From TrEMBL:
CDD domains: NPD_like (cd04730)
Family annotation (InterPro entries): Aldolase_TIM (IPR013785), NMO (IPR004136)
Organismal lineage: Bacteria, Pseudomonadati, Pseudomonadota, Alphaproteobacteria, Acetobacterales
Protein name per Swiss-Prot or TrEMBL: 2-nitropropane dioxygenase
Keywords: Dioxygenase, Flavoprotein, FMN, Oxidoreductase
Organism field: Neokomagataea tanensis
Keyword GTP-binding: no
Highest taxon of source: Bacteria
UniProt GO MF annotations: dioxygenase activity; nitronate monooxygenase activity
A family per Pfam: NMO
Length: 346
């Protein structure tokens, strides 16, 4: 065997637990991105050997059913559905997934109840959760979660406060009971290998797939990714701790600047007695209502919310999903090969 085939074999061994858990050829999940992670992108990722994930978001059970059926018409390979635990119809959404034999249900956006985890597993699907800290990861495993995603603050969309570099060091050495997938700021295969070697079972990527050929995102949305640098993907700023702002990472634009003005004006009106605290908070929270759709579907990338992770700086062209995944694998293999050469250099 030559050095490259040895390196391929090593990569396969490193992420085999992730491949086995997902039922995929490569242990790469697509991040669940509202308006983006739908039938076309999800099926493309699964067909290319990865693991696509439908972003249910605020969908009704009927709408989710339609999306699952449409995805199954485009791929015979496994894919997952990401459900938000705060959704008022969560139980019905789980039941829709189970009725259509979805293999994996990813419970995101909060801590799922033991009853929901049990409902997923009793229905024959695998239950996946998110762990932003070691203590919560251990708790979720005790509750019956079968795999975890640890997502660093480098990710796009709603983010926690800790980088993946730190999360991986905090969690991977101490939680070996279930497969753990790393996420946040990942855009290259060599970076994925570094986490596999720390004990991760695979990786979740979003930003790079949002700008793929199969993504239904508007051309303006994709082109804004091509122009952006890592530093352009910033989290939303909170002006006053009395009025919390959920941190969301996206590209800085006219909308983000207007949001700061809107906060300042709302706080001024509250202080002058023109608004009560509840109305002021709602005014701040509602500023971005519909703005993700405005950017992704309508292409208004100046006023909409252009959610993107810091890996956006590595998106240099709009490529097919199959090419993106093949590229990640090649980079991973090359990294292992180079490492072996460094170690065994005479």
């Amino acid at each position: 065997m030559n050095a490259k085939s040895d390196a391929r074999e090593t990569l396969q061994k490193l992420w085999q637990p992730g491949c086995d858990f997902l039922g995929s050829e490569v242990a790469v999940l697509g991040g669940a991105m509202s308006w983006v992670s739908e039938r076309n992108l999800v099926s493309a990722i699964s067909n290319a050997g990865g693991f696509g994930v439908i972003a249910c978001g605020a969908m009704s059970p009927e709408r989710l059913e339609e999306e699952i059926v449409a995805t199954q018409a485009l791929t015979k390979r496994p894919f997952g559905v990401n459900l938000i635990t705060m959704h008022p119809d969560l139980e019905r959404l789980v039941d829709v997934c189970l009725a259509h034999k979805v293999t994996h249900v990813i419970l995101a956006g909060g801590v799922p109840s033991s009853a929901i985890i049990r409902r997923v597993r009793d229905g024959g699907a695998r239950a996946v959760g998110f762990a932003p800290a070691l203590a919560l990861g251990k708790r979720l495993v005790k509750m019956g979660i079968e795999a975890l995603v640890i997502e660093g603050s480098e990710a796009g969309g709603h983010v926690g406060p800790v980088s993946l570099t730190v999360l991986a060091q905090e969690i991977l050495p101490h939680l070996r009971d279930v497969p753990i997938f790393v996420a946040g700021g990942l855009g290259r295969g060599d970076a994925v290998v570094s986490y596999l070697e720390q004990g991760a079972a695979g990786a979740q990527l979003g930003t790079v797939f949002a700008a793929s050929q199969e993504s239904i995102a508007h051309e303006n949305f994709k082109k804004s990714f091509l122009r952006a640098n890592a530093r352009d993907a910033v989290t939303s700023v909170q002006l006053d701790e009395q009025f919390p702002v959920i941190p969301v990472r996206g590209l800085s634009n006219a909308g983000t600047r207007q949001f700061l003005k809107h906060q300042a004006e709302t706080i001024r009106r509250f202080q002058n007695g023109e608004l009560n605290k509840e109305d002021a908070q709602l005014s701040i929270e509602h500023f971005w209502a519909g703005s993700l759709r405005r950017a992704v579907i309508d292409g208004d990338v100046e006023n909409g919310s252009v959610m993107a992770g810091q890996s956006v700086g590595m998106v240099k062209e709009i490529r097919p999903v199959s090419e993106i995944i093949a590229g990640l694998v090649e980079q991973a293999v090359e990294a292992i090969e180079k490492r072996e050469q460094r170690i065994h250099v005479s």
